[in-house]
Design brief:
This protein has one domain: Gcn5-related N-acetyltransferase (GNAT) (Aminopeptidase), CATH 3.40.630.30. It has seven helices and seven strands. Helix 1 crosses helix 3 and helix 2 crosses helix 3.
C-alpha cells in the first residue's frame, strides 16, 4: 500500500477560490446561501462564488487567506484551516445588522472572547480519511501554543465533532439554528472549547 503524503503551507491570495469552496463546505452551504442573498442585491448579475472568493482574498474576513493554512497533495489543495483570536465581543450593531441565520453563531463566539477561534476546518471529500484534518488542526493549535481554543460545529456533523473531541475539545454551549430559507442539516450549533 502506498503511503499518502501531503504538505501544508500558509494560504496565499491565489488560494481564495479553494478557501471559498471549503468554507462553504464546512458550513453545509450556509456561506453560499449568504453570498446568493448578497448577489441578489447587486444591479449587475454577479456570481455568488465571486463574492466568496473576494472575501477569501481580502485581508479582513474570518476565512481570509491571511488567517489560513492549506494542505496540498500532488500540488493540489486538499483542505484548509482558518483561525484567529477573538479579541472583543460583537457589538449590538453587529447583531442587529447580521442576517438572522448568523445570530446564534455570533452569540456563541461572544462567549469565547480571548480564545483562538477555528473558524473553518475542511477537507475536500475525496481527500478525507487521510489525516489531513487532524494535521491542519494540530498546526493551527501549534501556531498559538498554550492558547485556549474554540470552534463551532453543527450537531449534524458527527465526524467533525468526533475529531474535535479526540483533540480534547468539550462542549461549552449550544444555540438552536435559525434557518429561514437555508436548508442546512442539523438543529443546533455546538460551541466546543479546549
Amino acid at each position: 500500500m502506498l503511503k499518502t503524503t501531503f504538505t501544508s503551507r500558509p494560504a496565499t491570495y491565489e488560494d481564495a477560490r479553494h478557501l471559498a469552496r471549503l468554507v462553504n463546505q464546512a458550513g453545509d452551504g450556509l456561506a453560499y446561501h449568504h453570498w446568493q442573498t448578497l448577489a441578489a442585491g447587486y444591479e449587475d448579475d454577479i456570481d455568488p462564488w465571486a463574492i466568496g472568493i473576494r472575501r477569501a482574498a481580502s485581508e479582513t474576513s474570518g476565512f481570509s487567506y491571511t488567517k489560513s493554512l492549506v494542505a496540498e497533495m500532488d500540488r493540489k489543495v486538499t483542505g484548509c484551516v482558518s483561525s484567529y483570536m477573538i479579541d472583543a465581543p460583537s457589538t449590538p450593531e453587529d447583531h442587529a445588522g447580521a442576517p438572522a441565520v448568523f445570530r446564534p453563531l455570533l452569540e456563541l463566539e461572544d462567549m469565547v472572547v480571548g480564545t483562538h477561534y477555528v473558524n473553518v476546518l475542511a477537507v475536500y471529500p475525496e481527500y478525507r480519511g487521510k489525516g489531513i484534518g487532524s494535521r491542519l488542526l494540530t498546526e493551527a493549535e501549534g501556531l498559538v501554543e498554550g492558547a485556549t481554543m474554540s470552534i463551532i460545529v453543527s450537531n449534524a456533523n458527527r465526524d467533525a465533532r468526533r475529531l474535535y473531541e479526540r483533540f480534547g475539545y468539550r462542549q461549552h454551549a449550544s444555540r438552536p439554528k435559525i434557518k429561514g430559507d437555508w436548508d442546512g442539516l442539523g438543529e443546533a450549533w455546538i460551541l466546543l472549547v479546549k
